[in-house]
Structure formats: structure tokens, C-alpha cells
Amino acid sequence: MIQYYSRFFTLAFILMLLQMLIFDRVNLFGFSNPAVYLIILIVYRLTQDQFGYILIGFMVGFLLDLLTQTAGAHSIACVSTAFIRPVISRFALGANFDQPNAMFTGTLLTNRMLYIFLMIFIHQLIFSFFAYFSMAHFWIIFKHSITNTLFTFILIAATINLLQPKQ
User: What is the 8-class DSSP label of residue 28?
Assistant: First the structure.
């Protein structure tokens, strides 16, 4: 268990550094920034305790809010995504949602991709809403959510495919 958490927090530290130093400066179409730090929230074991997961989501969001000056949008989006992850995992992963490594083994590729897509889309929708904080900008929020979701999904799906243990 200690080995899992040490690898997990090392991955979290590296991804947050990459997010701040590289991916926050990438502007696809002039406004789309990938959120690769969501790998932290996606690959956390589904069998671990929910409170610890929500706490990790808050800490990741809070640190990114402090360093990128987004006034709480990352924190709210990460905590909300962490809170509703059990519903997303039951829906997307099906009967295998309670396996320790359901993200890597025991589920179909389409189910894993659906899980990743839903986690990213919900996070990006909440993040965009709280970044703009106005329903008058509904189309801008929707446009940013869709483009950020697609761009982030491509990067995260490729990264998770590279990190997947070989069978």
C-alpha cells in the first residue's frame, strides 16, 4: 500500500508540474488548454476510500488554483468530479467497477474510454462554468468545455495507454 501511494504521489507531483509549466501555456485554437493533471483523478484505484479520494481532489485543485490564480475553479471542479466518480464508474465500467485495477484490466476498452471521457467532460464543464461564472456566456462555456474535453481526452487516453501494464 505504501508503494502504491508513493508512486501515486510522485505521478501527481510530476503531472501538476507539467500542467503548470507546459500545458497551461498550450493554446489550441487560441483558448483550449489540456488538463492532463486529471490523470491523477482518473487512475486512482476505485477500491480505495472515497473520503481520501475527495481530499486528494481538493488538494490537487487547491494547489492548481494557488499556482494558476483561477479563484477556486480547479478546486470546485476536482472535488465535484471526485464526488460523483462512483456514479460514473458504475455507469461506464459496468459490473467490473469494483475491481482494484478496473482501469487497466478486466474491462473493455470502450468502457474505459467512456469512463475517461465522462470524467473529463464533467470536470471541464464544471471548471468552465466556474471560470466564467455567468450563464450569459453559455455558448462560450459549452465551446470551451467541448474543445478542452476532446483535446484532453486525446492526450490522457494516449498517456494512459502508455502507462498501462503489459499483460
Answer: B
